[in-house]
Amino acid sequence: MLEIKENFNISDYKNIAEYADCKDLHITEAVNGNSVYGFIAYSYSKSEVIIYDFNDNDDLYLCDGLVRSVLFKGCLNNLDTAVFKITDEHKLSKLRSLNFVQINNNQLNNINDFMDSCKKCKEIH
Questions:
Q1: Least CB-packed of 40, 58, 81, 106 within 10 Å?
Q2: How does strand 26-32 pair with strand 3-7?
Q3: CA 120, 121, 122, 125: dihedral to nearest 10 degrees?
Q4: Greatest CA span in the chain, whole angstroms?
Q5: Where are the beta strands (DSSP E) in the chain?
Q6: pLDDT tens string 38-57
Q7: How many CB atoms are closer than 10 A to CB 69?
Q8: What are the residues facing 77 on neighbouring strands?
Q9: Distance between CA 34 and CA 118 in Å, rounded?
Q10: Are 39 and 59 in contact (CB under 8 A)?
Q11: φ and ψ at 82, to 5 degrees?
């Protein structure tokens, strides 16, 4: 069974830590037993969640789950803005297709509204 859980040992993510250049880098992984299927790297500032990188092994559903898990944690920390510091165009196109970001805008300004919009989708279907 696939689980999404935080990895507190970021030694396998040193290159991302150097790129992120932040005090408290967080890594959340999608794991099944001892196998890691994907990850997302992020941090928190006083006003926003900052997402630096992710690997979803080209699984759009996994991408969605990883990002939503981080956004939810941001909501729990009373943060309502997410900034995606992603430069890879393929990853950005996935984020756009899932409506996390828009073209030429790598920021989600209202996490709570975004997460609540899922309730409306479920009501329609």
A1: 58
A2: antiparallel
A3: 120
A4: 44
A5: 3-7, 26-32, 35-44, 49-55, 82-84, 107-108
A6: 999 999 999 999 999 999 99
A7: 17
A8: none
A9: 31
A10: no
A11: -125, 135
